[in-house]
Specification:
The complex is a heterodimer of chains A (110) and B (117). With 110 residues, chain A is mainly β. Chain A is built from no helices and 11 strands. In chain A, the strands form 2 sheets. In chain A, strands 2, 4, 5, 9, 10 and 11 form a 6-stranded mixed sheet that branches. A 5-stranded antiparallel sheet of chain A has the order 1-3-8-7-6, with no helix packed on it. The chains are: A mainly beta (110), B mainly beta (117).
């Protein structure tokens, strides 16, 4: 079955880069997503990447996909205190249900 | 992006009562809606998928008679937690997408925090 795993916690200093890693098992995944969740709030889609891409950059966010190893990463450049949140990676197949990882708590120290 | 509105944002109810949570797509037609449940410090677990006009498809282990889902229109789905108990206390989140186009994004509501006392 599908499974998505990610590290549970990451602490960085303000201004540094953050890298959050994720692995998944479903080789038929078509889209891979990164969501941000602030305390008590719903999920905000940050970015997504199609499975035939290796990299996608969107302002401070860079997504790298290694499809062979089924490894996805999210790099946040110049991390700010407002980036502190829980980050979820998720995968889906042809627009079907999303399967989420457990979430990575990002703590940014000023 | 598109807007999904979930109501209420939080609710406290007595054990044994029922609670209804609404999920509305405000500016698109949501042919498919998903209901998730999230326990503290845990990931989102899909409870069920509902397509407009059809019965919901529940994930394994989710009691369909306890979590009633109605998706009667293209802009509204409801989740009713029947005979709620303290163990049903959780954060419930809906998402909606227009399934008529392949690979469209699913937009999330802001979530409903249910506390059963």
């Amino acid at each position: 079955g599908e499974d998505v795993e990610q590290s549970l916690f990451l602490s960085v200093r303000e201004g540094d880069s953050s890298v959050i890693n994720c692995t998944y098992t479903d080789s038929s995944s078509t889209y891979l997503y990164w969501y941000k969740q602030e305390p008590g709030a719903g999920l905000q889609l940050l970015t997504y990447i199609f499975s035939n891409m290796d990299m996608k950059q969107d302002q401070r966010l860079t997504v790298l996909l290694n499809k062979k190893d089924k490894h996805l990463s999210l790099r946040i450049a110049d991390t700010q205190t407002g980036d502190s949140a829980i980050y979820f990676c998720a995968e889906s197949t042809y627009g079907n249900k999303l399967v989420f990882g457990a979430g990575t708590i990002l703590r940014v120290k000023s | 992006g598109a807007v999904v509105s979930q109501h209420p944002s939080w609710v406290i109810c007595k054990s044994g009562t029922s609670v209804k949570i609404e999920c509305r797509s405000l500016d698109f037609q949501a042919t498919t809606m998903f209901w998730y449940r999230q326990f503290p410090k845990q990931s989102l677990m899909l409870m069920a998928t509902s397509n407009e006009g059809s019965k919901a498809t529940y994930e394994q282990g989710v009691e369909k008679d306890k979590f009633l889902i109605n998706h009667a229109s293209l802009t509204l789905s409801t989740l009713t937690v029947t005979s709620a108990h303290p163990e049903d206390s959780s954060f419930y989140i809906c998402s909606a997408r227009d399934g008529r186009t392949v690979n469209t994004e699913a937009f999330f509501g802001q979530g409903t925090r249910l506390t059963v006392v």
